[in-house]
Amino acid sequence: MLKVNDINVYYGNIHALKGVSLEIHQGEIVTLIGANGAGKSTLLKTLSGLLKPKSGEILFENEHLAGKVPQLIVKKGISHVPEGRRVFANMSVEENLELGAYLRKDKQGIREDFEKVYQLFPRLHERRKQLSGTLSGGEQQMLAMGRALMARPRLLLLDEPSMGLAPLLVKTIFQIIEEINKTGTTILLVEQNANMALSIADRAYVIETGKIVASGRASELGQSDQIRKAYLGGH
Ligand code: ATP
User: Fold this and answer.
1) What is the mean pLDDT of the chain?
2) 159 with 44: CB under 8 angstroms?
3) Domain ABC transporter, which positions (predicted)?
């Protein structure tokens, strides 16, 4: 579904992604794990068109997307839930969700997706008239995910969805990610919480200072001594 070939991304003269390649197959949950500053957010921003790679290819369903603008990438079926949620605080929950569908014209489909999002996140339905800025951190994460789903993506990019949430809520968010995946959405999940991410993912990539240093089945990577030591708090 997605094929990234040897991309290089710079911030000025900081070389943030150094020849990164990866693949995501339809229906998978793939997780990208790595320490602070390794380049995880940079990769997601490059996939969603917020950053342009200096070289390399991004193929989504055999179409070249590297360097294309974000709107076009959303139209092609990739939505990005950025780190830190970024909901529009002075707009209601409902209005934030509507914005997620702003590139669509199929009114009937949009209505159906409102229903789906409210089923997935009953809390958002209860709070649909409330200003988003007054929601808790967990609710804002739900709203950011719901807003991305309103674009009806086939590939969903999630940047640190569990950040700053209480353990019980983290569990809920991970369950919802699995549910979204079961309804046919492919997922690329960036996480600091490597244990949880590996527990729901099919495959994983490990990134260190801008380079992919390991990849494989999530269950196998989770057992590797080296990975356990570096990312899972193991000994
Ligand atoms: P985190 O979880 O802390 O966001 P990350 O793995 O997502 O970590 P990135 O945010 O992708 O890491 O950052 C990768 C590298 O690029 C880091 O060295 C970071 O300092 C640098 N970087 C990120 N954003 C910018 C920017 N806007 N300008 C300059 N350098 C940046």
Assistant:
1) 93
2) yes
3) 2-234
